[in-house]
Design goal:
This protein is mostly helical. The protein has four helices and two strands; from the N terminus they run E-E-H-H-H-H. The protein has helices at 11-24, 32-38, 49-57, 71-76, and strands at 2-4, 9-10.
C-alpha cells in the first residue's frame, strides 16, 4: 500500500527501513525523519504523516529499547531523594 504518494513510499518500504535501522543500531530512536532519510527521501506536504506514523507503530522495532526507557525520570532524581 502506498503511504506517501508525494515520495512514492509504501508500507513495505517503511517496515524495511525500520527493520534495517534497528538491526544496524539497536540503541537508535526511530523517528519518521530517520525513516525518510534511510529511504533517501524527505517529507513533502505532510498529508501522509498520520498514516506514516500509524504504519511505523505497527512495527515492533520502533519501540524504544528497554535500557533507554525512563532515563529522564532517573536523571531528575536528587541524591537526597534516595532515602524516601
Amino acid at each position: 500500500m502506498i503511504v506517501c504518494s508525494c515520495e512514492n513510499i509504501s508500507d513495505r518500504d517503511i517496515h524495511a527501513a525500520v527493520d534495517w535501522m534497528r538491526q544496524s543500531d539497536p540503541w537508535t530512536i526511530i523517528t519518521p525523519g530517520k525513516v525518510y532519510r534511510a529511504l533517501g527521501k524527505s517529507a513533502d506536504c505532510g498529508g501522509c504523516m498520520k498514516l506514516f506514523l500509524s504504519t511505523m507503530r505497527t512495527n515492533p522495532n520502533t519501540q524504544v529499547p528497554m535500557e533507554l526507557r525512563n532515563l529522564r525520570a532517573q536523571s531528575i532524581r536528587r541524591p537526597d531523594d534516595e532515602g524516601r
